[in-house]
Amino acid sequence: MYLKGRHLLNSTDFSIDELSSLIHLAEAISENPAYYSESCKGQVMASLFYEPSTRTRLSFDAAMKRLGGTVIGFSDPVISSHSKGESIEDTVRTVECYSDIIVMRHPEPFKPHKLSKLISNPLINAGDGSNQHPTQTLADLFTIYMYKKRLSNLKIGFCGDLKYGRTVHSLIKVMDRYEGNTFTCISPDSLKLPEEIIKDLRSEVIKCNQLEKTMKDLDILYMTRIQKERFPTAQEYENCKGYYILTKEEMKYAKEDAIIMHPLPRVDEIHESVDSDKRAVYFQQARAGMYMRMALILSLLGINKVQYVRPESLWLEPFLDDSRQVLGDRCQVQG
Ligand code: CP
């Protein structure tokens, strides 16, 4: 894996073996965080959030601090010179002078892609409007790996706002690269997965609008929030609000070994009574996000310390020979 100096803008920017290596590194970090606690000493991460966030911003913040680095930035552009009329291009160029890596969330699709051309330090897209959320995908992959022990041959149901939900747009493209996965897209007609995404998928895609009927077949149910902030009118949101609510009752239809994922935040689409079900893994998913972001920061900064990789980790499919070699060389310290 050689991710040093690269941007992360789309969920498909990394190859399958690069994703495998990141997952294994996240796993190693989660098993021995103390080993990595000074890895980023002297490094500065800039965190520029032009849109609200709890998990992404704070998990990046926690990730960098747990690696011994420091964080600068803002959670609301109103407190930056943006409010004096400074262009975002000038802000990013300036912030690059103070930091080693930049994490950015912006409401406009492809804004981080455009800004990345202005700088040479790594820029991580932490969500660009309804387009992509690649680091959520990394968190999702690590979560699936933890619970299902594979990323292939899975029946995955995506439920809710598949039109505006960027986490689904990012994840489905990556899961499509693994063999034997099938996708059931459960949404109201007005919130279907965009055709421009479906047309590029090679896996089987089933479309439906009833959650209950599909649950018995699913290995993973990926619930999403109706994205109120992306609707053109309040009325259109009101028409879809509360369309799907997963309850304890409906969980009776789910397989014993199914997992329920959600990128969070949730509003009402998963009833709190589901939280105590062992199949509900969305808070573990949030935790996985922090470890995965630690792995990502280390990798983009070129501080890729692999302390120990368990032999049973090597099953991840598909798994290219060259990454197997690197991961097979256990107890190795790089960088
Ligand atoms: N999953 C996610 O992106 O959550 P936040 O909007 O709270 O960052």
What's the topology here?
Elements: H1 16-31, E1 44-49, H2 55-66, E2 70-74, H3 88-98, E3 101-106, H4 111-116, E4 123-128, H5 134-148, E5 155-159, H6 166-175, E6 182-186, H7 195-198, E7 204-208, H8 211-214, E8 220-223, H9 234-240, H10 248-251, E9 259-261, H11 282-300, H12 321-328
Helix pairs in contact: 1-5, 1-11, 2-11, 5-6, 5-11
This protein binds phosphoric acid mono(formamide)ester (CP).
The total count of strands amounts to 9
Indicate the proportion of strand residues: 5-15%
What hetero molecules are bound to the protein chains? phosphoric acid mono(formamide)ester
Mean pLDDT: 90
CATH superfamily of the largest domain: Aspartate/ornithine carbamoyltransferase
Largest sheet: 5 strands, parallel
Q: Trace the largest sheet across and list its strands.
A: 7-6-5-8-9
Low-pLDDT sequence parts: 311-335
What fold name stands as the CATH topology of the largest domain? Rossmann fold
| CATH architecture descriptor of the largest domain | 3-Layer(aba) Sandwich
Radius of gyration: 20 Å
How many helical stretches?
12
Instruction: Identify the CATH class of the largest domain.
Output: Alpha Beta
Structurally, the number of domains stands at: 2
Order of secondary-structure elements? HEHEHEHEHEHEHEHEHHEHH
What structural class do the secondary elements suggest? alpha/beta
**C-alpha termini separation:** 12 Å
Described by the principal axes of the CA atoms, the overall outline is globular
Helix content: 25-40%
